[in-house]
């Protein structure tokens, strides 16, 4: 297991299905991570300990996911100099708009890079891009990933064209 350089935190273990794709994206790029349940509301001291010690423990990026009154990403960002990526979770009520607004509307001076509602995978990929700024081999891997993505779109377009042609 590689040393963790990305910290994945979530307000509850019930957030894991949304956060696991972030972990899988990091796995795809061979980036080490750790994952913990830390809540600004339920475990405020533990949350502060985590955020304040993160940089000193070698983490470089934090991904924080939460639902509802999702204060966790912003509170973590307030207590660490590391970049924080927020992931809003859609709960049964309000479809995640509550989580999104709680995370994205930060006061000036305390940025949280917010991905879309339920955007765990993009959070992982954004963490990889942030790390790739100072890591040439990781940047090469991102470029290969983008080329693969483009190739998949080309294949899908071809499939659509064939379907349209056979419908004529
Ligand atoms: N938004 C927060 C925070 C926080 O922001 O500190 N702590 C827990 N939660 C959220 O409460 C939701 C329900 O949690 P439970 O499933 O444990 O009841 C989760 O989406 C969690 O992220």
From TrEMBL:
Organism for this UniProt entry: Blastococcus colisei
Top-rank taxon, per record:
Bacteria
Enumerate the SMART domains for this protein. AIRC (SM01001)
Is Isomerase included in the keywords of this UniProt record? yes
In Swiss-Prot or TrEMBL terms, this protein is called N5-carboxyaminoimidazole ribonucleotide mutase
Among the GO biological process terms of this entry, one is: 'de novo' IMP biosynthetic process
Q: Where does substrate bind?
A: 12, 15, 42
Gene Ontology terms, MF aspect = 5-(carboxyamino)imidazole ribonucleotide mutase activity
Which family, according to UniProt?
A: Belongs to the AIR carboxylase family. Class I subfamily.
State which Enzyme Commission number(s) the record gives: 5.4.99.18
Query: Pfam families, alphabetically?
Result: AIRC
Question: What function does this protein fulfil?
Answer: Catalyzes the conversion of N5-carboxyaminoimidazole ribonucleotide (N5-CAIR) to 4-carboxy-5-aminoimidazole ribonucleotide (CAIR).
- UniProt gene name: purE
User: Per its UniProt record, what SUPFAM superfamilies does this chain match?
Assistant: N5-CAIR mutase (phosphoribosylaminoimidazole carboxylase, PurE)
Which UniProt keywords are present, listed alphabetically? Isomerase, Purine biosynthesis
Has the keyword Iron been applied to this entry?
Answer: no
PurE domain boundaries: 4-153
Reactions performed catalytically: 5-carboxyamino-1-(5-phospho-D-ribosyl)imidazole + H(+) = 5-amino-1-(5-phospho-D-ribosyl)imidazole-4-carboxylate
Pathway this chain belongs to: Purine metabolism; IMP biosynthesis via de novo pathway; 5-amino-1-(5-phospho-D-ribosyl)imidazole-4-carboxylate from 5-amino-1-(5-phospho-D-ribosyl)imidazole (N5-CAIR route): step 2/2
């Amino acid at each position: 297991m590689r040393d963790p350089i990305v910290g994945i935190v979530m307000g509850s273990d019930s957030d894991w299905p949304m956060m696991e794709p972030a972990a899988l994206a990091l796995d795809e790029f061979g980036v080490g991570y750790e994952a913990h349940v830390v809540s600004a509301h339920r475990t405020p001291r533990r949350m502060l300990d985590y955020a304040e010690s993160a940089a000193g423990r070698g983490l470089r990026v934090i991904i924080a996911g939460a639902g509802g009154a999702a204060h966790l990403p912003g509170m973590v960002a307030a207590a660490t100099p590391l970049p924080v990526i927020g992931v809003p979770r859609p709960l049964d009520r309000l479809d995640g708009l509550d989580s999104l607004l709680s995370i994205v509307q930060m006061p000036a001076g305390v940025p949280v890079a917010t991905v879309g509602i339920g955007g765990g995978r993009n959070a992982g990929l954004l963490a990889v891009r942030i790390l790739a700024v100072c890591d040439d081999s990781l940047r090469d891997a991102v470029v290969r990933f983008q080329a693969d993505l483009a190739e998949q779109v080309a294949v899908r377009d071809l499939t659509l064209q064939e379907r349209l042609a056979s419908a004529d």
